[in-house]
Hints:
alpha+beta; Glucose Permease (Domain IIA); eight-stranded antiparallel β-sheet; 11 strands; 12% helix; Dup_hybrid_motif; signal; Cell_wall_metabolism_enzyme; M23ase_b-sheet_dom
Amino acid sequence: MARACGRLVLLLLLTATALLAPAPRLTPTATSGPAAPAPDPTVPAIGRAWPVGLRPPVLRGWEPPPTPYDRGHRGVDLSAPAGAPVRAVAAGRVSFAGRVAGRGVVSVELTGTGNPPLRTTYEPVRAVVKKGDEVEAGEAVGTVEATGSHCTATCVHWGLRRGETYLDPLSLLPPQLLGRGPSRLLPVLGVPLP
Length: 194
């Protein structure tokens, strides 16, 4: 009985320690990509789908330049095979679908996001929509083109702007889509109940 009580006390202490410990920070890996920065409070988490796949690896994260004309990375690069569907992250109206500098580009102004509205951009994409089309979250706006990417592997560059200001597109996604859902306790096997 004393041994079972000791195990129970140990189990409770370990559980309390795990629950009260700060969450570990994600570190970049070859498969998961860079750790995402904290969401931008000026961007509502209205995204309902990733642009490609279910939770694609982030090949390169958002690196805002110190000034509008400095070097940086004004979006995120998501791993995606050529021909994969590219979906609207949230509902909106297509503001551009065409080619820029030889690359297929689709831009969507997001519904209900203020004035000026938030605008997402996906490239290189072969558009299946045209300017003025209304799209729903998760609706295909095109497919990934095999060429035209600045990545070493096939990818989609996903950008976000409000007016002339670039923002982190990952801020559009709620924690559940980013893999940061609530903690869940799992049963402990082999410990007798009191």
